[in-house]
């Protein structure tokens, strides 16, 4: 529950029940159920947070998974805007396979609004000039953007990706709990990542939702790249390495398709990230696939990480 029984910030209140439901559905065996009953008695706490977006979630010493709702909000905005801009750019450049579901005029309108949402989302990362303890983003503007209560053709899918991403975050922290990790190390982080990914993958395969599941996982990791643009840390694997690791578990039809949604999302988000933080990465060429482009971005990030690596 939120602290002080306050309302969750937009649009977190609309999706948290579904996140909790999926979290428990994915926990399918008795060992995990007993771990929740016996250890996580205080459950999952959503912490209202107006500060610039930082750590998504953590497992406290009291065995409570605390999730910061400003991260949840940021992830929703990232999921929605990246989905819309990617889809609408395909329409506007006549690269849609088959018949487009929207006109170019509609695509331009969706793109403009998504651009405004992205701009406000990026303000969530920096402090307000009048109060450094608060983010620069305007809560009033955020409430006016599309969401479950103000739906359009993209809100259902963006909601689903957000729910998958947040469930991945929760199961990552849950993995630390059941494996009894006592310290943050790159090995422990990948161990928790694998736990979360495999449980979500199993559910995704059973329900034919694997595309949505992996899009949500990748976008949750991409959100971390915006929070930590150095991509590096002493106790965590590099964020781009975690994305590459997660892709290993995707179904062959997803990871082997050179122009799948996953590679398009990674390439597009990398350009937004690089432009926002003024980091040089290559541009896609006319004759390369999105998978090839992602590989080139990965190689180009070596120099960036070498400059920012914490020893």
Topology:
Layout (H helix, E strand, L loop, with lengths): L11 H15 L3 H9 L5 E4 L9 E3 L5 E4 H24 L11 H20 L3 E2 L2 E5 L3 H5 L11 H24 L7 H22 L2 H18 L11 H9 L4 H4 L5 H17 L12 H19 L3
Parallel strand pairs: 1-3
Antiparallel strand pairs: 2-3, 4-5
Helix pairs in contact: 1-6, 3-4, 3-6, 3-8, 6-7, 6-8, 7-8, 8-9, 8-11, 11-12
Describe the fold and architecture.
It is a single chain. Residues 1-7 have low confidence and may be disordered. The protein has helices at residues 12-26, 30-38, 69-92, 104-123, 139-143, 155-178, 186-207, 210-227, 239-247, 252-255, 261-277, 290-308; strands at residues 44-47, 57-59, 65-68, 127-128, 131-135. The radius of gyration is 19 Å and the shape is globular. The protein has 311 residues and is mostly helical. It is built from 12 helices and 5 strands.
């Amino acid at each position: 529950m939120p602290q002080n029984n306050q309302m969750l910030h937009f649009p977190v209140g609309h999706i948290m029940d579904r996140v909790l439901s999926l979290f428990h559905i994915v926990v399918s065996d008795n060992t995990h159920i007993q771990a929740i009953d016996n250890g996580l008695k205080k459950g999952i706490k959503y912490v209202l947070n107006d500060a610039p977006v930082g750590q998504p979630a953590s497992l406290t010493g009291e065995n409570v998974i605390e999730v910061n709702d400003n991260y949840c909000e940021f992830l929703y905005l990232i999921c929605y805007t990246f989905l819309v801009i990617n889809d609408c750019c395909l329409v506007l450049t006549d690269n849609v396979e088959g018949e487009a579901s929207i006109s170019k005029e509609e695509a331009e309108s969706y793109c403009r609004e998504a651009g405004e949402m992205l701009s406000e989302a990026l303000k969530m990362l920096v402090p307000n000039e009048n109060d450094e303890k608060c983010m620069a983003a305007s809560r009033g503007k955020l409430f006016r953007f599309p969401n479950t209560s103000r739906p359009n053709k993209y809100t259902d899918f963006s909601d689903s990706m957000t729910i998958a991403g947040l469930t991945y975050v929760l199961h990552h922290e849950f993995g630390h709990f059941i494996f009894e990790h006592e310290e943050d190390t790159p090995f422990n982080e990948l161990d928790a990542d694998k736990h979360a990914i495999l449980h979500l993958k199993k559910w995704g395969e059973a329900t034919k939702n694997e595309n949505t599941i992996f899009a949500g996982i990748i976008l949750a990791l991409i959100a971390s790249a915006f929070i930590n643009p150095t991509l590096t840390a002493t106790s965590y694997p590099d964020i781009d390495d975690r994305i590459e690791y997660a892709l290993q578990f995707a179904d062959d039809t997803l990871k082997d398709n050179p122009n799948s949604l996953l590679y398009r999302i990674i390439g597009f988000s990398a350009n937004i990230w690089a432009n926002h933080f003024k980091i040089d990465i290559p541009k896609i060429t006319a004759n390369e696939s999105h998978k090839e482009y992602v590989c080139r971005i990965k190689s180009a990030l070596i120099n960036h990480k070498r400059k920012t690596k914490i020893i």
